[in-house]
Design goal:
There is one protein chain. By secondary structure, this protein is of the alpha+beta class. The strands form five sheets. It has a seven-stranded antiparallel β-sheet with strand order 11-14-23-16-17-18-19, with no helix packed on it. A seven-stranded antiparallel β-sheet has the order 12-13-24-15-20-21-22, with no helix packed on it. Strand 17 and strand 18 form a beta hairpin. The relative contact order is 0.11. About 9% of the residues have low confidence.
Length: 510
């Protein structure tokens, strides 16, 4: 802090993780008065599960308006890398100033100082009111500080001295004794030119390597596509954090991730995936004929009845919580259906028809999802949300692969009256594995997922597409090494039909 002529004090508020904006109100009541010259507060919203690490842009804007700082430096917003288990739960919301102001105008909040948070119409750079610097280096700020407040840099007693006129003492005497160098080369200088040709023992191999033109841009068309961008949350999300805590470990953080605490039982670690086994001939024939039953989960609220061989009809009650129905038998037996065993590809598929949402009233939040899962699976979670499962969700049209968060953009929402299907194709890779590569780099089985709507194959993706190393959790349990069961997720009031019998499918394999 530094004192000014009117006995007030100028200070800097440095809070890299953020301070509750309301805690800055006592600054305006201090005696002598404290004028906040600069606020150092980050924009980004960073959290781990339920614990907030950086308070983020909304709090920062409130803090600036309450403190009245003339400068605002965004700080502690650099990208932080974490490894291990923490990396899965670390979530960052990146804000720009434009996004912050749009969000605050949408909230339309007003402080007791009588001004909406996002009202900055009276702020200009010229009159040195609030200036948004956007992560400048500290030296840049100090230069601005010195230019506008020179009296505060050196304290109250600092004085400015100009150099005395003329040259320094004895400069003139030295200039009189100076003599120009004598003409010609210095004594002993060799006046003979060097002999022609390279020096003795010079070889062509001693030449430097040829120049590489780094300005040439390579052809990026030959590179693989970038990984799909995942979302932190679904806009149609309906599950609570407590439901997620029951299924997987929940982590909190204090002092920048230094203390980790387990909050709930890690269900998926307690119940590992079941290893595949040789199926009985009767079970294998039943699956090939589409004779599969749907098993009610404990969370399922509604009715379910068999409409024919491999055909099921059901409904759930309004306000029903998430529930996952699983097939009674795996459609893919890893022990006997793997293309590494049979030498041919294997396709699994089933269809779901949505008869209605919301019990016909239209006011109930409801939807469905169809997918595939290895067992065991937490049936209070929608398919695709936990390990060993994938799904396409009808409310947001996104695809989820072992994804607890917001999924990836994939297709349009599934509407009432539509019939949708989800299939997986297992085949031998086009390129055999390289002996020098690890199994993680070269999958032993090629897996493609496809989605149909009203009998037409609409889109799909490769299970082994390039993944985001920080957010994607891999494809464990889905790569042909485990048995896979059909999975139908439901919440709210939904009327539906499920068909495993290929004779009733709208889409027919070629």
């Amino acid at each position: 802090m530094s004192s000014t002529e009117d006995a007030s004090i100028e200070g800097l508020v440095y809070t890299p993780h953020g301070i509750n904006a309301e805690d800055l109100r006592p600054l305006s009541l201090a005696s002598p008065q404290i004028n906040v010259l600069a606020l150092l507060h980050g924009l980004h919203d960073i959290r781990i599960s339920k614990r907030q690490l950086n308070l983020g842009a909304h709090n920062a804007l409130r803090a600036q308006r309450i403190s009245g700082s003339r400068y605002w430096l965004s700080t502690h917003d650099e990208v932080k890398k974490a490894g291990g288990l923490v990396n899965h739960f670390l979530r960052r919301k990146i804000w720009t100033m434009e996004d912050v102001l749009k969000e605050e105008k949408r909230r339309n909040e007003t402080l007791d100082i009588g001004s909406p948070l996002a009202d900055i119409r009276d702020i200009h750079f010229a009159n040195l009111e609030t200036v948004f610097l956007g992560q400048p280096v500290l030296m840049g700020f100090l230069k601005a500080f010195r230019g506008n407040h020179p009296e505060t840099i050196g304290g109250e007693n600092s004085q400015n001295y100009a150099p005395p006129p003329g040259p320094p003492p004895s400069h003139g005497a030295l200039s009189q004794e100076y003599h120009a160098p004598p003409p010609g080369p210095p004594p002993g200088q060799n006046e003979y030119p060097p002999p022609p040709g390279p020096p003795p023992q010079h070889r062509a191999s001693d030449d430097p390597p040829p120049y590489h033109d780094w300005t040439v841009i390579p052809d990026t068309a030959l590179l693989p596509p970038p990984p799909s961008i995942g979302h932190e949350a679904s806009p149609a999300g309906n599950a609570s954090l407590s439901d997620a805590d029951r299924a997987h470990v929940c982590i909190t953080c204090c002092n920048c991730l230094h203390e980790l605490l387990t909050e709930s039982q890690d269900w998926c670690r307690t119940y590992p995936l079941l290893r595949p086994h040789q199926p009985a001939a009767l079970h294998h024939d039943s699956v090939n004929n589409g004779n599969i039953e749907l098993v009610k989960s404990r969370e399922f609220q509604g009715g379910l009845s068999k409409a024919g061989l491999g055909s099921w009809k059901g409904s759930t009650v309004p306000g029903g919580r998430d529930a996952c129905l699983l097939g009674s038998l795996p459609c893919y037996f890893a022990f006997s259906d793997s293309p590494l065993v049979t030498g041919i590809k294997k396709v699994i598929y089933f269809e779901v028809k949505v008869l209605s949402y919301g019990g016909g009233r239209g006011g109930d939040a409801s939807s469905m999802a169809l997918g595939w899962s290895a067992l065991p699976y937490p049936t209070w979670r929608m398919p695709g949300w936990e390990r060993g499962s994938l799904a396409v969700h009808g409310d947001d049209g996104r695809r989820y692969v072992n994804d607890t968060w917001g999924g990836k953009d994939f297709t349009n929402a599934i509407q009432a009256g539509q019939t949708v299907g989800l299939g997986m194709e297992f085949s031998i890779p086009d390129t055999p594995p390289d002996y020098g590569s690890s199994p993680a780099q070269t999958p032993s089985i090629k897996v493609d997922v496809f989605f149909t709507r009203d009998g037409v194959k609409e889109s799909g993706w490769s299970l082994h597409e390039e993944l985001d190393a920080q957010n994607d959790l891999g494809v464990g349990g889905l790569d042909g090494q485990f048995d896979l069961y059909a999975a139908v997720g439901l919440f709210g009031a939904v009327e539906f039909e499920v068909n495993f019998n290929r004779n009733h499918w709208l889409w027919q394999p070629s």
